[in-house]
Amino acid sequence: MKNDIRWDKAMYTTDTYNVEGLNGHAYAENGISVETSSPLSDEPGTNPEQLLGMSLCTCLVGTMAVILKEHHINEKAKAHAKISYVKGKGRYEFLVHAQVCVPGQTLPQTRALVSEVENRCCVSQLLSGSDNYSIEAVLDWE
C-alpha cells in the first residue's frame, strides 16, 4: 500500500492516533483530540461507533451538497446513521444503516439523489462492499 503512487498525489492526508487503547484518547495531528471509551461502559468518552457514524453522516451531507448544486437544487440534505455493535459470524461486527433526507424532494427524487451520493461519498464507498452496510432515502427520520 505504501508503494501506491496515489499517496504522493493526495489532495489531503491526515495522520490519526490512539496509543492508549479504547479507554484513552484519539487524536488527529494538528486537529481534534477526543476522549475515547467502550460503548459497553459508563465511562465518559466517544466510542468507535459514534466516530464512524459522524464520519459517514458528514461525508454524505458534504457530498450531497455538491450533487444538489450540480442539479440546481437549493436545499440542504440531512443524514442520520445508526451503528450497532453485534456479535456476528464468530466475531464482533458493526451494522451500519444510513438515512438521507433532502427537504422539498419527493421520495423517488431523493432515491435518485441517494443513488448518486452512495457512489460518490468516500466513506460510503469504503463501507459499500459489506453486507453490514445499507443506505436509504427517506422523507424524514423514521
Automatic annotation (TrEMBL):
Protein name as it appears in the record: Dihydroneopterin aldolase
Pfam families according to UniProt: OsmC
Family annotation (InterPro entries): KH_dom-like_a/b, OsmC/Ohr_fam, OsmC/Ohrsf
